[in-house]
């Protein structure tokens, strides 16, 4: 039986899971002697953080679950093997699935020798994770901490695959976007949406292209794949996911997933090569296809 995640809706995000704990952002710990402050926690219940920003850059990554974040007109999805870099001062909201092992590291802007001005997906290689785990220790002396931080600065890199789902932010089609976020299985055609909204399919097509760079069909496909990432991480099988997302057959879902991510859902689920130096799961390409 398919588990339902429907409960209270949050605009521009997936519906809250039942039992979601809503929190404000926690105060940052006291800054350590160096530039990077790392820590770990487990989210036992589905957890949502209300919109907030930090004075420090934040890098967050998860194991055993997923994290979604809303930044302006974008929804960003973080899955195992990747992290999300959130620049200091950027207002964002977040949501983690139950049981996610949640890790974050904060970077002092005045001590960080690079600047990502926008949120970025980061390749969480085993080396980078090991370095940040090392920096979470409280018994490092100043010299040891400085050496580890310098290597972090050398190896941290944006991923070739990014996670942002661009929301239209256009009053002509926002109703379509919100309806599909609420129910990604909605298979209504462009013509049906035009009739409901009292407009033309040509207007909807132009609006999606202008606002997202994608056609309506491509945007809906991208949204469904982002939702599929969460369902895969929650342990749903491909057949169930294809049904939940409105695909007629699992093969159609697999083909759509491959077009967006460059891999199959089965390959995404296979994390057995976690000891390699490569990122474990591919998510979405910089260029939409």
């Amino acid at each position: 039986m398919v588990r339902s995640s429907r409960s209270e809706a949050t605009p521009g995000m997936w519906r809250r899971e039942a039992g979601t704990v809503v929190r404000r952002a926690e105060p940052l710990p006291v800054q350590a002697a160096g530039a990077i402050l790392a820590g770990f926690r487990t989210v036992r219940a589905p957890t949502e953080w209300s919109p907030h920003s930090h004075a420090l850059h934040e890098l967050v990554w998860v194991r055993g679950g997923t994290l979604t974040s809303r930044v302006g007109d974008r929804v960003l999805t973080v899955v195992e093997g990747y992290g999300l870099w959130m620049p200091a001062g950027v207002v964002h909201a977040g949501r983690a699935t139950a049981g996610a092992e949640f890790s974050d590291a904060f970077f002092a802007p005045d001590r960080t020798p690079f600047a990502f001005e926008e949120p970025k997906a980061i390749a969480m290689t085993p080396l980078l994770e090991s370095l940040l785990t090392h920096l979470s220790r409280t018994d490092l002396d100043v010299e040891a901490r400085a050496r580890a931080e310098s290597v972090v600065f050398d190896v941290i890199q944006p991923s070739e695959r990014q996670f942002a789902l661009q929301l239209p932010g256009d009053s002509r089609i926002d109703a379509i976007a919100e309806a599909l976020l609420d129910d990604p299985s909605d298979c209504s055609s462009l013509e049906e949406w035009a009739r409901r909204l009292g407009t033309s399919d040509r207007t909807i097509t132009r609006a999606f292209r202008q606002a997202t760079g994608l056609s309506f069909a491509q945007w809906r496909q991208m949204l469904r794949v982002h939702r599929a990432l969460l369902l895969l991480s929650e342990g749903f099988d491909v057949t169930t996911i294809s049904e939940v997302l409105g695909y007629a057959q699992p093969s159609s879902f697999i083909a759509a997933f491959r077009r967006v991510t460059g891999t199959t859902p089965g390959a995404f689920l296979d994390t057995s090569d976690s000891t390699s130096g490569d990122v474990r799961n591919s998510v979405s390409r910089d260029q939409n296809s």
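Confidence is low (pLDDT under 50) at residues 1-11, 271-289. The chain is about 35% helix and 20% strand.
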